[in-house]
Queue: 3 jobs
Job 1
Amino acid sequence: MATASFLAAVVALGVAVLALRRRDVFGTGLLAVAGVAVAAWDVIVPLADEDIDPTGVSDTLWLPVIAVAAQCFYVIARRGVVARWPIPNPVLGLFVAYPAVLVSFLWPRRDVAQFTDDGAFVAVWIVQAAYCATLIGLAIVAMAERRQHHDATRRPLLLLMLLMVGLLGVQMVQVPGVHLVATAALVLIYRLVVVVRYNDRVPAPVVSPLGALEVHAFAFDHHGRLVEATRSALRLVGAATGREPRPGDSVAEALGPDVDLGTPGSDGVLVLGTGTRAVVAQARTASYRPPRAAGLDGTILTLWYAEGVTGAGGASRDTVTGALTRATLEAVLRSFARHATRSGEALSVAVVDLDRFKQVNDQHGHLAGDAMLAAVAGRLLDVVGDAGCVGRYGGDEMVVVLPGASLGTAHALASRLVQAAGQPVHAEGQRLEPSVSVGVAQHVPGQSATDLVRAADAAMYTVKRGGGGAAGTAQRDLRNSAGA
């Protein structure tokens, strides 16, 4: 038995070391504590049984390390039901105080010969058995609840539950080898926590309160971790970002690093993903009480009128031009600019302004002016296509956002915009000759979306002062950027 115990101690200590090397996974710190406790348990048993520890340390630590192991097993099991469950302060205080009280009681009584004659020790032994049995029992209940979810944890959890039941049974009948059962359970727990992410990815409940919703909806707990989502929402984000969110993801992992849930009850424009696959949506947040969330409110996020930035129609579109509204355009620009700063990818914008548009309104009427504006916007949308998105910035001014485009590429496209926009427009029985001035600027890392548009706007006004009907850039030397 001694050889098996020492081998088990090596295994348990190995689990602790491996857990510490995977600190990127939630729950490995507690798993390391459990590994050390079980390893100490494995070593103490043969020392105490064969009375080869003259210091009495093994007699003092025997019950405390068992208590610590049981506490760790319970918390890990509980976090399999409530992802990243924070240990309440009263419970944490109990977990710290109980082993400390045991040590203070057992150290003066570390002579094994005194134990059989000490009624106080018998009482402590009964309390210890009840305490550990309660923790292991609660752990089994939590694991049984988690097994209701049909995920990768079902089979390992069944085996772990059997080991826990065996742990209780062997301990109750005082059969030697209970510490070996604990070591086997520890190895299985390592696989659950590190490989399956048992402690930070809890699947949505079988009966979901979001299930009846026909909109794109996400529910996050008070830690900002995804609890559940409608299937349409998962597909939407997967198409925009290339990865479907998973339960336990943070807001940044689920929706993107630039997404902020804001204050519950607020509305706004949300941009998911980057580049031409990005999706814009009208977003609304509200308070939400996730299942088994320890009474703390989370946030539910619903997305309305979600569409691709290069698409057409929907509430994110201007009714006259079919381009993105200013609010949507600014949200897209902010998101793309932050992404460009983080990734170093190119981003360019073009500010397009109709030349002498006020004269058209004054001479031919506002209906003719709106018709010409709509026709020019339609041509911009056709030329840009899937290379970017077009938004109405205000009045007769529009902004073209070109993710991944260098200054040279953007200038070439701007020249095509000038040519396409300059074709005649027939409106209100009249032939109109539109003309546009275009200014192009490329994003500089750290530059805000506002400053980027301001640079392109300045380039556009330079063109306009030169007579209009052309495209210009914010940089003087276009040749150095053409191949970027």
Job 2
Amino acid sequence: MAKKTNSKTSKKSGGDNSVVAVDIQNRELGEILSEKYLSYALSTIMSRSLPDVRDGLKPVHRRVLYAMYQLNLKPETPPKKSARIVGDVIGKYHPHGDSSIYDAMVRLAQDFAVRYPLVDGQGNFGNIDGDNAAAMRYTEARLTKVAQLLLEDIDQDTVDFRATYDGETVEPVVMPANFPNLLANGSSGIAVGMATNIPPHNVAELCDALDLLIENKECEVKDLLKFVKGPDFPTGGILAEDKAVIRQAYETGRGSLRVRAVWHKEEPKKGDGWQIVITEIPYQVVKSRLIEKIAELIVNKKLPFLDDITDESAEDVRIVLTPKNKTIEAELLMAQLYKNTDLETRFSLNMNVLDRGLTPRVMNLKEVLQAFIDHRQDVLLRRSRHRLTQIDHRLEVLGGLLVAYLNIDEVIKIIREEDDPKAVMMKRFKLSDVQVEAILNMRLRSLRKLEEIEIRREDKELRAEKAELEKLIASHKLQMKAISAQVARIREAFAANTPLGKRRTQAGKAPVDIDVPVEAFIEKEPITVICSDKGWIRAMKGHLEQEKIDAISYKDGDGFKFAIPCETTDKLVVFGTNGKFYTLACDKLPSGRGFGEPVRLMIDLSNEADIVTIMKHEPARKLLVAADDGRGFVVPEKEILSQTKNGKQCLMVKGGVEARVCFAVEPNHDQVATIGQNRKLLVFPLDQVPEMTKGVGVILQRHKDGGLSDAKTFRLKDGLTWYSAGKERVEMNLKAWRGERAQAGVLPPNGFPRANKFSGK
């Protein structure tokens, strides 16, 4: 809709009859909301959330530091109450709540949150456990040497100033920043539609990279990364990431970097076994919450391999982990902890900042460093020009003073006798207003010969300094040399051999993901799995002899079905008539003190389905599965494990068809024997049965009446065996029953069980 403007008039109330024009515009609400939202978004981005690439500060941090500077809170001066500082910030520069300002100041003082603290806090300023700082009336603060570097030469016209919110005073738009604060301390924030997350880095490494960039402006990010090894977090840790990933992150300004805790294996002085001691945790991880989370996982049996966790931290981090199983490898234990806890985190790098034009954009490492150099060049030029102005003013004054000394008697006479000595001296000696004022304000005791010598000496020195400054302003090479000298001083102050400059985060390699089986954390013990006729299962300790198995009691109406010798680290495979495989962990089976539990309660087996068989899982084996319609196939046992109680569908059955057969195929077997409910026996080569992971299979034996009753595999030269009346029978001459897959077969040999089962029952 186009804008429509109507001019209306109205009269002011009271005695004033003047007419006021009111501009009323008809505009769409969506258009107005869009403008207001855009204005709000820009205000949030520029005034709250994103740091300036030049000094790495947000407005609130900049105002806090400048207020402390105005209060003369230098590192060598006594600190002042934090409440006084916050009050000044609110009253002069930042009209917001005191909590937001104090929280910002507190973070600048926390050595576990900021790599190079900008505020020297006295009192309780919080800790790595997540405890809050004391109230601002109880704490004191002053600037650090790092903050001094950020504010260096701020009174030398090095940066622009702007009016504060009430217009009573001014505040710096940006700090001179003789310190690469953006990369050194990092920054984080969320704006409208964008965010930033920059990790801290080692200043000595940044200085080396700056030197390279000053020397060769055409260098690439990969060249800078020879010096910058990646983030250097205040809490240490290990940067467990591949160099290619790090390079891509710094080339694009976006990426994700993995950080791990630092640990070592420790043998206690008393007792047996070993412990894991964690000495460094990832950046921005609250230690108390980390310990609570691990303890919760232990209680909930999500970490069955871990027995206890203890916090023995004092000034340094010391978290002690006690494993439940002393036979487990420490590396495997830590791999599981990395996977399930904040002992491994990912830092999302996003170098979204405001450039020198206050435009938000994502920069790579080279662009950020170059922006710092450009800013330092601007500061250098502005300081030089400011100094030149001061020198020119002083030279002008000195010129006037020299004239006065050369004509001292006449000057005194003019001052004593003339009504307007200023105008007379300006006309007589051709002096400027500044020069005459300096002469009139000169002390009488300065009227000595020695002072003339000092004036001439000072004039000479100032002219030499002026010449050097003019050369500096005119030469880009000299400017870069001066900046390089400044960088060298920073490197020396924060060298690797200093407590603050020493690198804390270790540069590691990308870890190989270790697939840690659960069995590795289960104490291996022998058990015997007992299953009853009605499907009740339990685990007895040890591998029981037949006498003890026979002596096991069952519920009324129930009895023994089979026993399986296993280990607690094994798995059981349950095959149902619905064609699904279910998995049971042996360490989760009920103990043998009672009658056990129904298998149906452990798996989601429908009431319409029955259990075909239960066996110990052996991944290297192959199984032959078949339904009562005579269809089946061979499936690798490693493909049948189920991760849920719902099971894994393998043999597809429908329309009243049920799975009937499941048994292990021995490696040397070469024949398949099938027996139908119609008492027809068929023997055919095993290689005629395909290997599949899921499906309906192929026809093993064709049946006119009934269906498949049983099947087995065997080696031809060993003959076909079966059990009848408790005795094993062998048939070597199988010519009459041998054929091809899917044939009907013929009647079995004399003596074959009437149950049509090779087991005889």
Job 3
Amino acid sequence: MPAHAAAATASASSADATDEASSAAALLATFRRRKAERVREALSATSPAGSPDVDALRCLAIERYGLASNELRRLVWPLLTRVADKPEPPTPTQKQLKRHPDYNQMNLQKPTVRLPIYSQVVLDVERSLKRFPPGMDEQVRMSYQDQLVETIMRVLHANSHLHYYQGYHDIVITFLLVLDSRHAYNVVEAVSKSHLREHLYPSMAVTTELLKLVPLLLSKDPRGKRIADLIEKHEVPPAFSVAWVITWFGHVLDDLDAILRLYDFFLASHPLMPLYFSAALVLHKQDRLLSLPPEDIDFAVLHSCLANIPNSGAIQLETVISEACRLFILHPPDTVQSPSWFDELKLFEQPGGQRKPRSRLGLLMVKAQVSLPHLLRSRGALLILLAVLVALLAVLWAQLLS
């Protein structure tokens, strides 16, 4: 082919690719705009109680593209956590904080590092530069970091049964970047006492047990059996996913938009959904691992590959969210055939030792599992149907805790 003809062909191909990218971007913008309109409609609608229809908002947060924008997240996140109308409590003085036991309490989760909790929080916050948007003014960033330390210590001060863990600051940063100070504090406190509670115990023992759900879910899915067998064969502990779960992927993903989309999803779902998403992510990215020659796979290789999955290339986020919903419906927490440790975690235990009844939750989960197995095993299952089912379970879970 003559040089000028080859150049013309290359130029035409480049133009076609540019046109396709522009069309895809325009289509995505249209989808997001329509989704934002649906969220606004749900915000303006009222439930029988006369308040915004939180159940509808929960479904929308789970569905494709989540809540669509930070403007809408500022309105919806406080509703999902039931703190929209809650006033911000008085800020304790520095003197009051210093008198609180947690201020100088040694970090029980790291007994070999004799560092007071307050000092540990400050150190973690100072090392969190990558969590702030690129190009943010230094003074603005430093102001956020001051708010971050203050918010964490205020939550611990107000809730003596909660204990700081490294990675908690990644959660709090995300809420501070979206919400005003009043709603950020109230949402963080609410999430800390519900979705994150098991991670805020004096030690990470409960979290370590919860992580076992990830390989367990893989072993129950036909597509995950091979990777689950490899994990078992090489005795890789589920700790490879700890940073994913305890930070809601805020520590391991660089794309803030992706992190915010996951926060929409997790806030609207059952507290264990980050574990289901972790299993779905392994399923989504397992081909590279399974393509390795068996003789090249050992403990170190397998653990490293698993731990680095979030950064091992592009993630089709909506596909993984859909897969997580499918896993949750097929293998909900109350019906999964799990070891005895799962029953002993007392996920619904209230402060003071009281427990809420779980029978209605279990019944609904069993119904969801039995009535839709054929449909939900299809790779083409509609995310909207999954979103409705997952949201229903999350609503019932929230009612049991209220």
